[in-house]
Design goal:
The protein is of the alpha+beta class. Helices cover 22% and strands 24% of the residues. It has helices at residues 4-13, 93-100, 104-107, 120-127; strands at residues 19-26, 34-38, 45-48, 65-74, 78-83. The N and C termini lie far apart (45 Å).
C-alpha cells in the first residue's frame, strides 16, 4: 500500500504524455475491465478498457513489454495509462479524444493534478449514453 506522502510525491513528478516502459502484469477479464501494468514505480499502472481494442483477444497479454503514456492519475492512487503502440489502442481513439478529452494535446507535458473525486454531475455525464452535453454558447 502506498502512503499518502509517497502518492503525492509520485503524482507531482508525473506529466501527461510521459512515457514509461512497462510490463503487463494482469489481464483480469479480457474485453471487460482493462490491464494492469508495472511501470517500475511503487504505484500501479492501469489501462482502462475504453482505451484498448474492442476485442479482448487483441489486448496485450501478461508479460508483454511496451511503452505506455500517462493519461491520468486519479485519487484512487493509480496511474492511468494509454498504450503507445497503436496495436493495443482502441480503433476509434481520435473520436474518443474528441468526445471525452478534447484538451488532450494541450495537456501533454503538463503536471498531473489531482482532480479529486468526481462530482455527481460529472459521473452522470460519463454514464449518459449520448456523451457530454454540447455547449450551446
Amino acid at each position: 500500500m502506498v502512503t499518502d506522502a509517497e502518492w503525492d510525491r509520485t503524482r507531482r513528478a508525473l506529466r501527461f504524455g510521459q512515457v514509461f516502459e512497462g510490463t503487463v502484469v494482469n489481464v483480469p477479464r479480457p474485453g471487460a475491465i482493462g490491464i494492469f501494468v508495472d511501470i517500475g514505480l511503487s504505484v500501479g499502472g492501469f489501462v482502462d478498457v475504453l482505451l484498448l481494442p474492442e476485442q479482448g483477444e487483441d489486448w496485450p497479454e501478461v508479460g508483454t513489454v511496451g511503452e505506455f503514456e500517462v493519461w491520468w492519475a486519479d485519487s484512487g492512487r493509480q496511474i492511468r495509462l494509454k498504450p503507445s503502440d497503436s496495436r493495443y489502442l482502441c480503433s476509434d481513439f481520435a473520436d474518443f479524444v474528441d468526445r471525452w478529452r478534447p484538451g488532450w494535446p494541450s495537456d501533454i507535458g503538463c503536471p498531473v493534478r489531482d482532480a479529486g473525486a468526481p462530482s455527481p454531475d460529472e459521473v452522470q455525464v460519463v454514464l449518459r449514453s449520448d456523451g457530454p452535453p454540447v455547449d450551446s454558447s
